[in-house]
Amino acid sequence: MKGFLAQPVSQIMGKPIIFPSDAKASTLLGELRRLNRFEALVESRSKTRIVTLLDLLKVSNPSRTLVGRIARSAIPIASEAPIMEALDLMIVCRSWGLVIKEGGEVLGIVSQYDVVDRLSKMHVISVSCGEVMKADVVSVEADDRLSKARSIMRGHDLPYLPVLEDSRLRGGLSIEDLVFNMIQPRESMGREDRSGASSRLWSIKVRSVMDRSPLIVDEDYPASKALERMLARNKRACLIAKDSRLLGILTPREIISHLLKSKPRSEPLIYVIGLPRAGDFVELEEVEAKLKRTLDKIFRQFKPIAEVVVDIKRRKIRGGRTLYGLNARIYRPGKIIALSAEGWYLSEAIDNLCRKLNKIRSRERKQPRRRALF
């Protein structure tokens, strides 16, 4: 297990589906369904963003919606970063997938499902479902309207909901049940007709589209076998129940959270992407050390930060000098802090970035009553 988690994330990355930002959501929807995928990347100028099936729940008419309108920021990770750090970033930032980049170029994508698929083939998870399941489960009633289920999935970022009736487990509702059945192109309709059709569709009861044969096991069932069955049957979750009473739920997120419990969190995790290999060269260790010294001061003052990703780009060359641009993202639970800096010569750009970090720290120390940025 430790050997697997220490491997570079590039070992398990997959080939992403990439769409331009002006593509129609209906085209994306069809491709995700055809390939049985949960996410796709969206290229817009120099930015890479991501769209998941959960984002498609926002769409009322996919044939008139551009994917660039619903895409969210993609979280990058360096190809040499260990798998353990990728898992940590997924959980801390509640991300279903990370974009693997090198020098600003997209190499691939790694998702929570990619990780658990590899783990299921290794047979290394030796705990029961009851030990790793999430007991505080968000669910819906069979007679609830689909609009309520959609609202819960969007609000809680959940791809699967157990369905109850009189406090007894009756089925499950996946993101695919909603997106592929309820979101349909309606180009020939007028605006009022589309609005009315959408309202009628989402007023249907959950029992009409729910999965009546969900994967259900008891709490003593091995989690590794539950994971294998979940993937083999193409289910988003495994429900843990006893005598039709729901006890918990098992998804890739619970498996990953279990793996992270043994991970020490002594130092900040810093990734530098796009470091030049020639010309105005600065050693990677020097860059990381300078950032770490600045961040250590912030860590002592504010709550812990999970990861820092610094993306380096060459802006322009003039008179033998290179203007560098640095885009930094600081990840902490539920929040991403974005900073940018420029400088002629890489060392100057890094100094400017560290200076901005110190300004944030100084400002917060002088005004302790304000809500901290970190």
Q: Topology as H/E string?
A: HEHEEEEHEEHHEHEEHHEHEEHEHEEEH
- Looking at CATH, the homologous superfamily of the largest domain is CBS-domain
Per CATH, the architecture of the largest domain is Roll
Give start-end ranges of low-pLDDT stretches: 186-197, 368-374
Mean pLDDT across the residues is 81
Write structural notes for this entry.
This protein has helices spanning 2-6, 25-35, 83-92, 112-122, 129-132, 146-156, 175-182, 191-202, 223-232, 252-260, 284-301, 346-366, and strands at 18-20, 39-44, 47-52, 72-73, 76-78, 97-102, 105-111, 140-141, 160-165, 168-174, 216-217, 238-242, 245-250, 269-273, 307-318, 321-332, 335-344. The protein is an alpha/beta fold and 374 residues long. The protein folds into three domains: 8-122, CBS-domain (Roll), CATH 3.10.580.10; 129-260, CBS-domain; 269-366, 2-Layer Sandwich (Double Stranded RNA Binding Domain). The strands form five sheets. It has a four-stranded mixed β-sheet with strand order 1-2-3-4, with no helix packed on it. The protein has a four-stranded mixed β-sheet with strand order 14-15-16-17, sandwiched between helices. Strand 15 (307-318) and strand 16 (321-332) form a beta hairpin. The longest helix has 21 residues, at 346-366. The radius of gyration is 23 Å and the shape is globular. Residues 186-197 and 368-374 have low confidence and may be disordered.
Summarize this structure as a short list of keywords or feature phrases:
single chain, 374 residues, alpha/beta, CBS-domain, Double Stranded RNA Binding Domain, 3 domains, 4-stranded mixed beta sheet, 12 helices, 17 strands, 27% strand
